[in-house]
Amino acid sequence: MLVRGLFALLIILPYWFLVGEKPWWLTLLVAAGAFGVAHALEYWLRRAGDEHMRKKAKILLSVAVLAVGGGLLIRSSIAEADYYKHVHEVNANPSRFVGKRLKVHGFVEAGSIEEKIVGSETTRTFVLEYQGQRIQVRHKGPKPDTFRDLAEVVAAGKLVQDKDGALVVEATELMAKCPSKYEQDRRKPPTQASN
Questions:
Q1: pTM of the prediction?
Q2: Of 91, 97, 134, 145, which alpha carbon lies 20 to 30 A from 160's?
């Protein structure tokens, strides 16, 4: 029974971590196949009759399951890690970040915030700016109290390409810091000179 369970895990773990969408029927099929193959392997080991060989097989299967499980956990944690970048770093090499989770740091460009209510949820778009570079951000749901023009913001989400090819951060979370008086004065848009 132990060998059957270990061998089934050896098959199921890679499936679970490597396959993106897992329909219930495919999961059931993989599990049934894994237990079927594991049952055949256990039957073969019992028929072999050598107790020493069975112990070695159990140890090897245990080590293999631990190695595969550990490797897949490490791989998935690396793959799901968030990149933390400033706007100008994302714009310097956007293809590297498209479709990946990241946190983009910048300042809300004055006058760029647009909010509307869609259904029962508030959606907003705004522009993040840093060192002269700009990127559009889309966000749904509640916003931080300190979110406003010129605020320092970290938008966490995924970088996607719009239909027109423009890069947009689809943010699931916003973290905002209210600008200090010094930063506000420094970041104020230039005023038009009166004639």
A1: 0.55
A2: 145
